[in-house]
Structure formats: structure tokens, C-alpha cells
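Example 169.
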Amino acid sequence: MFRKYGWVIAVFIVAMFAWGAFSAEQASGADANEYVGDNEKKCGMCHKEQVAAWKKWPMAKTWDTLQASKDKKDSCIPCHVTGFGKPGGFVSIEKTPKLVNVQCEACHGPAKDHLAAPLNDVEKKRNTMTKPTEANCKTCHNKDSPHYKEFKYADAVKALADHKPKPKK
Ligand code: HEC
Ligand code: HEC
Ligand code: HEC
Ligand code: HEC
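Predicted structure in complex with heme C:
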């Protein structure tokens, strides 16, 4: 009996596995990635040097800078916070206080999947965060900013070099 129908059973089992993996993929949702905020705490345990460097940047204080301005209004907010209007991103100071300032995720993308990736899966850790591009910076560094200064990508990235990890020996 098994000899005769064994292959049918085998195909069935393989198909069930494939379907199971597919459903798991669906459930986790390819685009379910979200901003998490509170990056100093959530990234600091593994990226201590990056957090230390970032804390010295003006971009780590853009919320306070905005609050101190007599010209502040709602339309200023998107460029002075993280993930404005995106899934898990900044909504309002009351609802999402952990997303103030230009945090890591403003440049490297939402980090929910990155945090969920197992620590021993370095490939997945790498693939769940993005390297910033010029276009990404220019969503904020553009002429809609009332304080716009000419934005030269190469120079601006150099100014952030203090947070790039040192090459491993
Ligand atoms: C549990 C440890 C851990 C935490 C927490 C963590 N990361 Fe990572 N991260 C890693 C590891 C491991 C890598 C891969 C390191 C490597 O490439 O050598 C990585 C890589 C990265 C990279 C580089 C991706 C690339 O292009 O190569 C970025 C950017 C990054 N993490 C940002 C973040 C941010 C932002 C947070 C907080 C929201 C965070 N990480 C939290 C462990 C962590
Ligand atoms: C204003 C944008 C910006 C912010 C905010 C920012 N980064 Fe970066 N990050 C960059 C740029 C630009 C690079 C260089 C990418 C390259 O070399 O192509 C980089 C590189 C990195 C790398 C190295 C990736 C690689 O190539 O191996 C890590 C890790 C990283 N950042 C983590 C963080 C963490 C953690 C935070 C928050 C504490 C953070 N970054 C905040 C822009 C930013
Ligand atoms: C979410 C908006 C946003 C993004 C994305 C962003 N920035 Fe900024 N950046 C700001 C704001 C706001 C300031 C002003 C900080 C202050 O003075 O309070 C700033 C300041 C800076 C400064 C400090 C110099 C200055 O004029 O104050 C550098 C350098 C810089 N950004 C580089 C970058 C680079 C490079 C990227 C992309 C990899 C980037 N930024 C992406 C909003 C952003
Ligand atoms: C399109 C994105 C954007 C908008 C909208 C925006 N800002 Fe900014 N803001 C920036 C960036 C980027 C910088 C860094 C300077 C630059 O443009 O290079 C900055 C810098 C600042 C600074 C620091 C002063 C300086 O010379 O660097 C203050 C204060 C400020 N913004 C207040 C405001 C106020 C008030 C509004 C609303 C009326 C506003 N911003 C709207 C992106 C924006």
C-alpha cells in the first residue's frame, strides 16, 4: 500500500510544508515592518558607539530646536521627527513621544523586523536595515525647509562619519 501510494503521500507532505511556509510569510506580512522609536534605548545595547556619536549631532535634538522657534507650526513637524505619517511613525507628541528627533530609523528605515531578526543571523540583521541614500536625506534637506542650506550629500555624509563602525581587524 505505502509502496504504491508513497510518492503521493510524499508530494502531499512537501506541499503542506510549502503551504505552511507560505502562510507564515503572509501572516508576518512582507510590509509589516514598522518604526519603533526610542532608538537610544532600543539600538544602544548593540550599537553603543553609533548611539554615542548620534547623541552629539544636532539631528538628535531637532524637536527641542523646533519647540524653541517662535515660528513653529504643525507643518514644520515632519522633518523634525522620525517616520512621520508612516506605519508606526510619528503621529503627535501626545501619542508618539518616542519618535521625536531625527533618530536612526529616519535614515536607516523602520527597525521592527531588524529587532525581531535573531542575533546569530547576521545576514538577516544586515538585510533588515537600509543604507541611507541621497534621496532619503533630501526628503528633509530641501527647499521646503525655511532654514535651507545647500545640501551637498558627500560632505553631509562625511559629517556623520563618526558613527560608522570601525573596520574589524
Ligand atoms: C540585539 C542586537 C541588535 C540590536 C538591538 C540592533 N541591532 Fe542593528 N545590527 C545588529 C547586527 C548583529 C548587525 C549586523 C552587523 C554586521 O554587519 O556586522 C546590525 C546591523 C545594523 C545596521 C547596518 C545594516 C547594513 O546595511 O549593513 C544598521 C543600520 C542597524 N543595525 C541599525 C539598527 C537600529 C537603528 C537599531 C535600533 C532600532 C538596531 N540596529 C538594533 C544587531 C542589533
Ligand atoms: C542622518 C542620517 C543618519 C542617522 C540619523 C543615523 N545614521 Fe547610521 N549611517 C548613515 C550614513 C549616511 C551611513 C553611511 C552609509 C554608507 O557608508 O553608505 C551610516 C552608517 C551606519 C552603519 C554602518 C553600515 C555599514 O555600512 O556597515 C551603522 C551600523 C549605522 N549607521 C547605525 C546607526 C544607528 C544605530 C543610528 C542611531 C543611533 C544611526 N545609524 C543614525 C546615516 C545615518
Ligand atoms: C527626518 C528629516 C531628516 C532626514 C531624513 C535627514 N536630516 Fe539631516 N537634519 C535634519 C534637521 C531638522 C537638521 C537640523 C538640526 C538642528 O540644527 O536642530 C539636520 C541637520 C543635519 C546636519 C548638521 C548640519 C546642520 O546644518 O545643522 C547634517 C550634517 C545632516 N543633517 C546630514 C544628513 C544626512 C547626510 C542625511 C541623510 C543620510 C540626513 N541629514 C537626513 C533633518 C533630517
Ligand atoms: C522640508 C523639511 C523641513 C521643514 C518643513 C522644516 N524644517 Fe526646520 N530644518 C530642516 C533641516 C533639514 C534643517 C537643517 C538646516 C538645513 O536645511 O540644512 C532645519 C533646521 C531648523 C532650525 C535650526 C536653525 C538652522 O539654521 O539650522 C530651526 C530653528 C528650524 N529648522 C525650525 C523650523 C520651523 C520653525 C519650521 C516650520 C515653519 C521648520 N523648521 C520646517 C528641515 C525642515
